[in-house]
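User: My collaborator sent over this chain with a note saying "see what the structure looks like." That's all I know about it. Can you take a look?
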Amino acid sequence: MEILKTKKQNNSKVDEKDIKVPHTLVIIAAIIMIVSIATYLIPGGAYETVVNEAGKNVVVDGTFKYTESQPQNLFKVLKAPIQGIVDGAEIIAFLFIVGGAFNLIAETKAINFGIIRIVNLFKGKEILLLPIIIFLFSLGGATFGMSEEAVPFISILAPLTLALGYDSIVAVAITYLACILGFSSAMLNPFTVGIAQSIAGIQVYSGIELRTVIWFITTLVGTAFIMAYAMKIKKNPKKSLVYESDQIKRKNLQNFEDKKGDFTLSHKIILLAFAIAIGVIVWGVLEKGFWIPEIAAVFLAVGVISGILGKLSPDEMANAFIEGAKEMIGPAIMIGFARGIIVIAENANIIDTILYNLSNAIGSLPSLLAAYVMYPIQMFINFFINSGSGQAALTMPILAPLGDLVGISRQLTVLIYQLGDGFSNAMFPTSGVLIACLGIAGVPYGKWLKWIIPLQIILFALSIGFITIASLIGWA
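Assistant: Without extra context I'll predict from the sequence alone. Here is the result:
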């Protein structure tokens, strides 16, 4: 997309000037070093696993055994990012396909015209658009576990937020972060609530009333935080953490407005095709179990159709697709290196050891204090295992019966798990989807971290409040 084409050079320019915020790759490399050192200090260990009724491997509580330590030497550490790229091949391939497809659509200028129409429609009342978008994405996260699906929306909403007078951080916030707000406080998310409740042995989707209240409050608080920042940037764009890089994008948009031609019938049909594609994706996810390959295929199809409708030659379409895919190289590398952290911890067999010792520490605490401690423990585990279903399979068989021993209901244990699993996905660099969204929007991870830490503190306090209320009312 024309407005986003400069993000690669923008990031390097800003990172070089702002030495206070290390490059994303530097941050990830530092974490890799820390984890690799930890493999020499933490002994190996493992739980036995069984396949449950849903066909998922779950650990068996009480089966932990220490195993031979597997310290990761320098050569193994250097191999880890390569393995991380292999393990993350699906999301990386998704980025390349979606990046190429969106650039194809962008070459037709239909998106630019659509953005200008929306800006003119909401002129003077731009702020009203944000809560609508946030609640829609949050609802998607709360009902069908929308998270990865937010990635393609960044390419559309990043230039739109700039045109409305906000910045690229707002674009990530109203899409991916909004999904995470819903994902974390979900009432119906099948990948977290559904699986965790099933493993914990309680009725699936029970407790929906309190979870709905928690979702609404969480989304409301998140919306207020995002809108407060957005209004500050609207009033004074120089207060944006990504002001310099966004300035070039704004200039590109202004240049397009100055020399724009007619909004033709083909532009309208392309936008209609894109809207239909979004509808197909939502239907496919809800009804047909669409996942990353299917979603990518839909975007590839609409990209090709757009190129044909936009009267691009085959060579122009091929070049546009390659250029769009090229812009995803940076995020793809970040994802591979971030997954390298997990590879190192898994190869050293230290994740189960950490979980075992943390669960032993919880067992000696009073019930409410144990509930408080379980929450940051889930966040810590989420750093290494940011798959919601994967984390449920690892932790719920251990923490659910442990909760019984200290007086924590299994319903509350599930709530602690989903809060700990979710919110930190918007902060940890091991989340491939987060890195992908930031890469597409052109937001350096360090600057995003600086922006989101205050909200994470608020969400942490809010979660403690939810846990306290649920415990005091005996929620079961």
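A starting point for your reply to your collaborator: Residues 21 and 450 are 9 Å apart (CA to CA).
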